[in-house]
Design a protein that fits this description.
alpha/beta, FAD/NAD(P)-binding domain, 13 helices, 38% helix, single chain, 6-stranded mixed beta sheet
């Protein structure tokens, strides 16, 4: 049982941890509560730090081959006027490539790279017991024991509730989001980015194969849903925005739209307890406003495996993981929340000031601000 690990959660962070630990010689079991593997209808941005983490997992080149390189982007207003242009070429020169990929495709790559037979479906965690020498996990398929438990089971983590019962739960950010992938009726888009209005936003991300990942955000009461369908709601809210947003929404199928309220996690005092470690959203769920959620989960996984590979003591390695990961991820989460607050301003005077200030920001200042996040490099491992 010396190098055995249970990973709760078969999403990006959990599968990345399985790949990383497997490459270091650990025997892993991934407990996924879903009874079957399904498609996840959304895209995501892999920033240079996330791509480097995938390099450490041996998957960087494959991601670059199948992913859509970052196109021209930035922030516009709802009429299409640019407020802030991004310099993609300079960003890549300084920090490395940004690539866009369908979430389902990244999950496929991680599953393929995970140790054979590691993934166990229909195994929702219901209890955790750590006796100091091993961890016992009760789940939908029985009971598992290992030297290490990694809680990568998301925003409403069962591992976090079991081991940290007093920890704060998720908090609603004040806005809801729609996500969908749609084929653009006018052909491939050559520019992406976000458009900001008053309490509303739309983002466009071109994907390999010609599709577009579209996300829309709006201030709304928690739990609110549209009585006549989410495509109708999107067209009401954003049908008068600049091209190609109305055409993309007209081409969207109702079943392609995923709607979910946005939450983050208040800062935890620790990501580890004994032989249990939290990773990804279970540790530091953040709003999507910096595009770093999946990237930080990949960093977590690579760092955790490197530290466990370097120190034979699981508790000592986990303590080092907490020291290294918690300050960084909580800083990024705070930045993301602040960005979301400003982006979701709804007061006309405040929005006018915000948009005027954005037009004055030099591109170099944006790149410098991104430096501490994007310049991360994985530990020397794997």
């Amino acid at each position: 049982m010396e190098r055995t690990a249970i990973i709760a959660g078969g999403g990006i962070g959990g599968l990345a941890a399985a790949v990383a630990l497997g490459r270091c010689g650990w025997r892993v079991e991934v407990l996924e509560r879903a009874p079957a593997i399904g498609e996840v209808g959304a895209g995501l941005s892999l920033w240079p730090n996330g791509v480097r983490a995938l390099d450490a997992l041996g998957l960087g080149e494959r991601v670059r081959e199948i992913a859509m390189p970052e196109t021209a982007g930035g922030v516009r207003d709802r009429s299409g006027r640019w407020l802030l242009r991004s310099d993609s070429a300079e960003l890549e020169r300084r920090y490395g490539p940004v690539v866009m990929i369908h979430r389902a495709r990244l999950l496929d790559l991680l599953r393929e790279a995970a140790p054979p037979g590691a993934l166990r479906l229909g195994a929702e965690v219901s209890g955790v017991r750590d006796d100091g020498t091993h961890v016992e996990v009760t789940h939908g398929a029985g009971v598992s024991r290992a030297a290490l438990l990694v809680g990568a089971d998301g925003l409403r983590s069962a591992v976090r509730r079991s081991v940290w019962p007093e920890a704060p739960g998720p908090r609603y950010a004040g806005y809801t989001a729609w996500r969908l992938v749609v084929d653009p009726p006018g052909g491939r888009l050559d520019a992406g980015g976000e458009s900001w209005g008053r309490g509303e936003r739309v983002g466009l991300v071109p994907l390999a194969g010609g599709g577009v990942y579209l996300f829309a955000v709006a201030n709304a009461p928690e739990g609110e849903r549209s009585a006549d369908g989410e495509t109708a709601e999107l067209r009401r809210r954003f049908g008068g925005w600049h091209a190609p947003i109305p055409a993309l929404l007209d081409a969207a199928a109702e079943e392609a739209v995923l709607r979910g309220d946005i939450y983050d996690l208040p800062p935890l005092e620790s990501y580890v307890s004994g032989r249990v470690a939290l990773l990804g959203d279970a540790a530091h769920a953040m709003t999507p406003d910096q595009g770093q959620g999946a990237n930080q989960a990949l960093e977590d996984a690579v760092t955790l495996a490197a530290l466990l590979d370097a120190d034979p003591s699981v508790p000592a390695a986990l303590a080092a993981y907490d020291r290294e990961r918690r300050p960084r991820t909580q800083t990024i989460a705070r930045r993301s929340r602040r960005t979301g607050v400003v982006a979701q301003w709804s007061s006309a005077p405040a929005v006018a000031v915000r948009d005027r200030l954005l037009r004055l920001v030099p591109p170099g200042a944006v790149l410098r601000a991104l430096g501490p996040v994007l310049s991360w490099r994985p530990p020397g491992m794997l």
